[in-house]
Protein backbone atom coordinates (compact mmCIF):
# COMPACT_ATOMS: atom_id res chain seq x y z
CA UNK A 1 0.00 0.00 0.00
CA UNK A 2 2.87 2.37 0.74
CA UNK A 3 4.30 1.55 -2.71
CA UNK A 4 1.04 2.81 -4.21
CA UNK A 5 1.63 6.11 -2.42
CA UNK A 6 4.73 6.64 -4.57
CA UNK A 7 2.64 6.15 -7.74
CA UNK A 8 -0.18 8.44 -6.63
CA UNK A 9 -1.47 11.34 -8.70
CA UNK A 10 -0.98 14.54 -6.72
CA UNK A 11 -4.02 16.42 -8.09
CA UNK A 12 -7.23 16.31 -6.00
CA UNK A 13 -10.11 14.19 -7.28
CA UNK A 14 -12.59 16.25 -9.29
CA UNK A 15 -16.32 15.58 -9.50
CA UNK A 16 -17.23 13.44 -12.51
CA UNK A 17 -13.65 12.39 -13.26
CA UNK A 18 -12.67 8.75 -13.79
CA UNK A 19 -11.09 8.46 -10.30
CA UNK A 20 -14.45 9.66 -8.90
CA UNK A 21 -16.85 7.61 -11.03
CA UNK A 22 -14.86 4.35 -11.30
CA UNK A 23 -14.97 3.32 -7.61
CA UNK A 24 -18.70 4.11 -7.43
CA UNK A 25 -19.46 1.92 -10.45
CA UNK A 26 -17.26 -0.84 -9.05
CA UNK A 27 -19.10 -0.56 -5.74
CA UNK A 28 -22.55 -0.84 -7.36
CA UNK A 29 -21.54 -3.93 -9.34
CA UNK A 30 -19.80 -5.56 -6.36
CA UNK A 31 -22.63 -4.79 -3.93
CA UNK A 32 -25.36 -6.20 -6.19
CA UNK A 33 -23.35 -9.32 -7.03
CA UNK A 34 -22.05 -9.83 -3.48
CA UNK A 35 -25.45 -9.54 -1.80
CA UNK A 36 -27.17 -11.83 -4.31
CA UNK A 37 -24.37 -14.40 -4.10
CA UNK A 38 -24.37 -14.34 -0.29
CA UNK A 39 -28.14 -14.83 -0.07
CA UNK A 40 -28.22 -17.70 -2.59
CA UNK A 41 -25.02 -19.63 -2.01
CA UNK A 42 -23.57 -18.90 1.44
CA UNK A 43 -24.73 -20.43 4.68
CA UNK A 44 -25.16 -18.36 7.83
CA UNK A 45 -21.63 -19.01 9.08
CA UNK A 46 -20.12 -17.93 5.76
CA UNK A 47 -22.32 -14.82 5.67
CA UNK A 48 -21.12 -13.88 9.13
CA UNK A 49 -17.52 -14.38 8.06
CA UNK A 50 -17.96 -12.05 5.07
CA UNK A 51 -19.65 -9.48 7.31
CA UNK A 52 -16.85 -9.64 9.88
CA UNK A 53 -14.11 -9.26 7.27
CA UNK A 54 -15.85 -6.22 5.78
CA UNK A 55 -15.72 -4.57 9.19
CA UNK A 56 -12.07 -5.48 9.67
CA UNK A 57 -11.17 -4.13 6.21
CA UNK A 58 -12.84 -0.77 6.82
CA UNK A 59 -11.50 -0.30 10.33
CA UNK A 60 -8.08 -1.55 9.27
CA UNK A 61 -7.86 1.04 6.50
CA UNK A 62 -8.39 3.80 9.07
CA UNK A 63 -5.80 2.36 11.45
CA UNK A 64 -3.19 1.90 8.69
CA UNK A 65 -3.80 5.42 7.39
CA UNK A 66 -3.31 6.99 10.82
CA UNK A 67 -0.22 4.94 11.56
CA UNK A 68 1.17 6.16 8.24
CA UNK A 69 0.39 9.78 9.15
CA UNK A 70 2.05 9.35 12.55
CA UNK A 71 5.15 7.72 11.00
CA UNK A 72 5.41 10.62 8.54
CA UNK A 73 5.86 12.93 11.53
CA UNK A 74 3.12 15.42 10.65
CA UNK A 75 0.24 14.14 12.77
CA UNK A 76 -1.88 16.94 14.23
CA UNK A 77 -4.37 16.13 17.00
CA UNK A 78 -6.44 19.18 16.05
CA UNK A 79 -7.05 17.95 12.49
CA UNK A 80 -6.06 14.30 12.06
CA UNK A 81 -7.86 12.29 14.74
CA UNK A 82 -10.56 9.91 13.39
CA UNK A 83 -13.37 12.00 14.86
CA UNK A 84 -15.21 13.09 11.74
CA UNK A 85 -18.41 11.07 11.57
CA UNK A 86 -17.43 8.71 8.75
CA UNK A 87 -13.96 8.05 10.18
CA UNK A 88 -15.42 7.47 13.63
CA UNK A 89 -17.98 5.00 12.26
CA UNK A 90 -15.28 3.21 10.30
CA UNK A 91 -13.18 2.82 13.44
CA UNK A 92 -15.99 1.27 15.51
CA UNK A 93 -17.85 -0.63 12.76
CA UNK A 94 -16.28 -4.01 13.76
CA UNK A 95 -18.32 -3.84 16.97
CA UNK A 96 -21.45 -4.03 14.81
CA UNK A 97 -20.17 -6.62 12.36
CA UNK A 98 -19.03 -8.89 15.21
CA UNK A 99 -22.14 -8.57 17.38
CA UNK A 100 -24.91 -7.72 14.89
CA UNK A 101 -26.72 -5.83 17.66
CA UNK A 102 -29.98 -4.45 16.32
CA UNK A 103 -29.69 -1.18 18.25
CA UNK A 104 -26.37 -0.54 16.53
CA UNK A 105 -28.06 -1.14 13.18
CA UNK A 106 -30.76 1.37 14.15
CA UNK A 107 -28.17 4.05 14.90
CA UNK A 108 -25.67 3.32 12.15
CA UNK A 109 -28.07 2.91 9.23
CA UNK A 110 -29.10 6.57 9.31
CA UNK A 111 -25.62 7.84 10.16
CA UNK A 112 -24.04 5.88 7.32
CA UNK A 113 -26.57 6.60 4.59
CA UNK A 114 -26.93 10.29 5.50
CA UNK A 115 -23.26 10.80 6.37
CA UNK A 116 -21.67 9.18 3.32
CA UNK A 117 -24.01 10.52 0.61
CA UNK A 118 -22.37 13.92 0.26
CA UNK A 119 -18.91 12.38 0.56
CA UNK A 120 -19.62 9.99 -2.31
CA UNK A 121 -21.24 12.57 -4.58
CA UNK A 122 -18.75 15.36 -3.80
CA UNK A 123 -15.52 13.68 -2.66
CA UNK A 124 -13.03 15.73 -0.66
CA UNK A 125 -9.76 13.94 -1.41
CA UNK A 126 -6.67 16.13 -1.31
CA UNK A 127 -4.45 13.57 -3.06
CA UNK A 128 -5.52 11.77 -6.20
CA UNK A 129 -5.71 8.29 -7.65
CA UNK A 130 -3.72 5.54 -5.88
CA UNK A 131 -2.74 7.75 -2.93
CA UNK A 132 -3.21 6.25 0.51
CA UNK A 133 -5.79 8.94 1.24
CA UNK A 134 -7.68 8.03 -1.94
CA UNK A 135 -7.76 4.32 -1.15
CA UNK A 136 -8.72 4.94 2.49
CA UNK A 137 -11.46 7.40 1.50
CA UNK A 138 -13.30 5.02 -0.81
CA UNK A 139 -12.86 1.95 1.38
CA UNK A 140 -14.43 3.87 4.27
CA UNK A 141 -17.30 5.58 2.47
CA UNK A 142 -18.33 2.79 0.13
CA UNK A 143 -17.46 0.09 2.66
CA UNK A 144 -19.77 1.54 5.31
CA UNK A 145 -22.64 1.60 2.81
CA UNK A 146 -21.84 -2.00 1.83
CA UNK A 147 -22.09 -3.14 5.45
CA UNK A 148 -25.48 -1.51 5.99
CA UNK A 149 -26.82 -2.93 2.72
CA UNK A 150 -25.49 -6.37 3.66
CA UNK A 151 -27.13 -6.17 7.09
CA UNK A 152 -30.41 -5.10 5.50
CA UNK A 153 -30.69 -7.46 2.55
CA UNK A 154 -28.72 -10.51 3.72
CA UNK A 155 -29.52 -10.54 7.45
CA UNK A 156 -32.96 -8.99 7.04
CA UNK A 157 -32.50 -6.10 9.47
CA UNK A 158 -34.97 -3.25 8.97
CA UNK A 159 -35.50 0.08 10.75
CA UNK A 160 -38.69 1.07 12.54
CA UNK A 161 -40.06 4.56 13.03
CA UNK A 162 -38.55 4.52 16.53
CA UNK A 163 -35.16 3.90 14.93
CA UNK A 164 -35.29 7.38 13.38
CA UNK A 165 -35.48 9.04 16.79
CA UNK A 166 -32.98 6.67 18.42
CA UNK A 167 -30.41 7.47 15.75
CA UNK A 168 -31.17 11.20 15.94
CA UNK A 169 -30.76 11.17 19.74
CA UNK A 170 -27.46 9.27 19.46
CA UNK A 171 -26.30 11.88 16.95
CA UNK A 172 -26.93 14.61 19.53
CA UNK A 173 -24.71 12.77 22.02
CA UNK A 174 -21.98 12.46 19.38
CA UNK A 175 -22.29 16.18 18.56
CA UNK A 176 -21.98 17.24 22.22
CA UNK A 177 -18.88 15.08 22.72
CA UNK A 178 -17.28 16.46 19.55
CA UNK A 179 -18.07 20.04 20.57
CA UNK A 180 -16.27 19.45 23.89
CA UNK A 181 -13.27 17.87 22.14
CA UNK A 182 -13.18 20.72 19.62
CA UNK A 183 -13.02 23.19 22.50
CA UNK A 184 -10.27 21.23 24.26
CA UNK A 185 -8.16 20.77 21.11
CA UNK A 186 -9.01 24.04 19.37
CA UNK A 187 -10.25 21.83 16.54
CA UNK A 188 -13.16 21.74 14.12
CA UNK A 189 -14.15 18.09 13.83
CA UNK A 190 -17.39 17.53 11.92
CA UNK A 191 -17.39 21.31 11.33
CA UNK A 192 -19.27 21.89 14.56
CA UNK A 193 -17.11 24.84 15.63
CA UNK A 194 -16.99 26.71 12.32
CA UNK A 195 -17.71 26.20 8.65
CA UNK A 196 -15.11 24.46 6.47
CA UNK A 197 -12.65 26.81 4.79
CA UNK A 198 -13.25 25.26 1.37
CA UNK A 199 -16.50 25.78 -0.54
CA UNK A 200 -19.34 23.55 0.62
CA UNK A 201 -23.13 23.38 0.90
CA UNK A 202 -22.75 24.91 4.36
CA UNK A 203 -21.94 28.23 2.69
CA UNK A 204 -25.68 28.62 2.10
CA UNK A 205 -26.42 28.34 5.82
CA UNK A 206 -26.27 30.94 8.58
CA UNK A 207 -23.14 31.58 10.62
CA UNK A 208 -22.09 29.58 13.71
CA UNK A 209 -23.81 28.47 15.86
CA UNK A 210 -27.07 28.97 13.95
CA UNK A 211 -26.10 26.70 11.08
CA UNK A 212 -26.00 23.80 13.55
CA UNK A 213 -29.68 24.37 14.30
CA UNK A 214 -30.44 24.55 10.58
CA UNK A 215 -28.67 21.25 10.01
CA UNK A 216 -30.69 19.70 12.83
CA UNK A 217 -33.89 20.77 11.05
CA UNK A 218 -32.63 19.11 7.87
CA UNK A 219 -31.33 15.90 9.44
CA UNK A 220 -34.55 14.65 11.04
CA UNK A 221 -36.63 14.74 7.81
CA UNK A 222 -33.65 13.20 6.00
CA UNK A 223 -33.59 10.35 8.51
CA UNK A 224 -37.32 9.88 7.97
CA UNK A 225 -36.76 9.62 4.21
CA UNK A 226 -34.12 6.95 4.81
CA UNK A 227 -36.62 5.10 7.00
CA UNK A 228 -39.16 5.13 4.16
CA UNK A 229 -36.56 3.68 1.79
CA UNK A 230 -35.39 0.91 4.12
CA UNK A 231 -38.50 0.04 6.14
CA UNK A 232 -40.01 -3.41 5.85
CA UNK A 233 -42.75 -3.58 3.26
CA UNK A 234 -45.94 -5.43 4.06
CA UNK A 235 -46.78 -7.95 1.40
CA UNK A 236 -50.31 -8.00 0.08
CA UNK A 237 -52.28 -11.11 0.94
From TrEMBL:
NCBIfam families reported for this sequence: intg_mem_TP0381
InterPro entries with a match to the protein in the record: CHP02206_TP0381
Any Pfam family matching the protein: TMEM164
Membrane-crossing residue ranges in chain numbering: 20-38, 50-68, 74-96, 103-122, 134-156, 168-191, 211-230
Protein name: TIGR02206 family membrane protein
Entry keyword set: Membrane, Transmembrane, Transmembrane helix
Source organism superkingdom: Bacteria
Amino acid sequence: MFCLQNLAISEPVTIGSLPHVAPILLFIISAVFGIRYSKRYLNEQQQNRVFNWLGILISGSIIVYHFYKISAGNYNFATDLPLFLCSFMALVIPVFTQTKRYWLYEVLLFWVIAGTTQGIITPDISEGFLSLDYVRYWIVHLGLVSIMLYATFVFGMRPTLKSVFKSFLALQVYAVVILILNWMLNANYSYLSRKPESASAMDFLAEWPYYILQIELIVLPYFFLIFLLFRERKTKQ
